[in-house]
Design goal:
Number of helices: 13
Strand content: 5-15%
Structural class: alpha+beta
Helix content: 55-70%
Largest sheet: 5 strands, mixed
Number of strands: 7
């Protein structure tokens, strides 16, 4: 027995870019990397100044601050694996970095230390990563720390041999500090901005999908209402045509009898479309939607479409499909039929329908030899009412894109060499299904 649709389809591919949680986690990783750089820079600067230049520094407390910062960084790394990063955690991380910098500067000259400009790095990162309400306390903390270091700090005592070169050393320190701040800002803000752009792209694509789903819902409500309204006149027409077919006077004319048969067939097809619309809207029998053999489905579509378009050079191929099955719903057949209609309306001398199996997917291709897609159409494929036929058109591709997406597949379009368009539907294959009930 066929399984329900939800048991057969795969989860649709996620939007491109990064989700807000993924972007926040990646930004926290950037802060963790920056903190490791800060720890390494502090240790190198302390040891170089103390042992190479002979500057007397409180070595033990300063190395202890660097060790405490390393330990805190390890805690942030472990917490990032278990929990998602939140704005409050970013504020805590930046305040921790600022506190460590304040402690190091307090032990090495306070506001006179040329590396005081490293505070700007924390403030700029906070302005990018934090909401405005959290940037204010971070900026206030930076100002208070600067004021504290101006009033209270341990003096930076240079050895006697460096006194006459103190101005030069301070200038060199300021230059090194400026280069460090500029390089780190460029490096990490570039990465963080890229993460934020990826997050914005993800959110924008979600919003686009939501708008498309809303359009589908509105069209579905309209189609369901129209199907109800069309049911009665179609039934009346079917009865009238059946009566005419039984009329001996009309049956005596072979051409008229053939046309009445075609009319009855078209009415039955219209009634089937109406039934499919109601079924998709959940208003028909409460049957579980299941799977379908791709070859059988394409055979039926090709036979029906070729019979309705005898004047068009139609080519159909489905070699290699075997018993391949995909998740199916009535809208899938209608989507393929609409693509064939679009190909025929493109002033194409011939239309091609092909099915093939590739790895874990089934490829269904509709191709024509018309004018093809314009660059603008290729950029906006799948969007509502994007058509060269004017306002009110463009539903065929829009519906096909959303049907394929709902079934866990994807749709791709391109232009053919020498003219014409190709639309390819890729649907995930289903595993072998048991013929017995479950």
């Amino acid at each position: 027995m066929d399984r329900p649709l939800l048991a057969l389809t795969r989860r649709p591919p996620p939007p491109s870019g990064r989700s807000p949680d993924e972007a926040a986690a990646e930004n926290m990783r950037q802060l963790i990397q920056l903190r490791w750089i800060a720890v390494a820079g502090q240790v190198v600067a302390i040891l170089l100044a103390h042992f190479a230049l002979g500057v007397r520094l409180p070595l033990a407390p300063m190395l202890a601050v660097a060790a405490a910062l390393s330990l805190a960084n390890i805690v942030f790394m472990l917490s990032l694996r278990r929990f998602r990063a939140v704005p409050g955690e970013f504020l805590l991380a930046l305040l921790l970095d600022m506190a460590a910098l304040t402690a190091q500067l307090y032990l090495s000259g306070g506001a006179t230390n040329p590396f005081i400009s490293l505070y700007l790095l924390q403030v700029v990162l906070g302005a990018i990563l934090l909401p405005p309400a959290m940037v204010i306390p971070l900026g206030a903390s930076c100002c208070l720390a600067f004021a504290f270091l101006t009033l209270r700090h341990l003096p930076l005592r240079l050895p006697a041999r460096l006194w006459d070169r103190e101005a030069d050393l301070m200038l060199i320190g300021q230059w090194v500090s400026f280069v460090m701040v500029a390089a780190l800002l460029v490096l990490f803000i570039t990465r963080i901005s890229r993460n934020l752009r990826a997050r914005d792209a993800y959110v924008a694509e979600l919003a686009q999908h939501a708008a498309e789903e809303d359009g589908i819902v509105r069209m579905g409500l309209f189609a369901s209402g129209a199907a109800h309204e069309l049911g009665t006149p179609l039934s009346s027409l079917s009865v009238l045509v059946a009566d005419w077919q039984r009329d001996a006077r009309l049956s005596a004319h072979p051409e008229l009898r053939e046309e009445l048969g075609e009319a009855q067939a078209e009415i039955q097809r219209c009634k089937q479309i109406v039934s499919n619309i109601l079924h998709s809207a959940g208003e028909a029998r409460g049957e579980a939607m299941g799977s379908v053999a791709v070859a059988d489905m394409l055979d039926d579509i090709a036979a029906g479409w070729q019979a309705a378009h005898a004047a068009i050079d139609f080519t159909y191929a489905s070699d290699g499909l075997g018993q391949a099955r995909v998740a199916a719903e009535p809208a899938l057949r209608q989507a393929i039929w609409n693509l064939l209609e679009n190909a025929a309306e493109a002033s194409s001398p011939n239309v091609t329908l092909a099915g093939a199996q590739a790895h874990e997917y089934v490829s269904i291709t509709v191709a024509d030899r018309g004018p093809g897609f314009t660059d603008d159409q290729l950029r906006n494929i799948g969007k509502l009412y994007q058509s060269s036929k004017g306002p009110g058109h463009g539903l065929g591709l829009f519906l096909a894109v959303n049907v394929v997406r709902r079934l866990g597949g994807r749709l791709a379009v391109s232009n053919r060499d020498g003219g014409g368009a190709v639309v390819e539907l890729s649907l995930p294959l289903l595993p072998e299904l048991s013929e017995r009930e479950g």
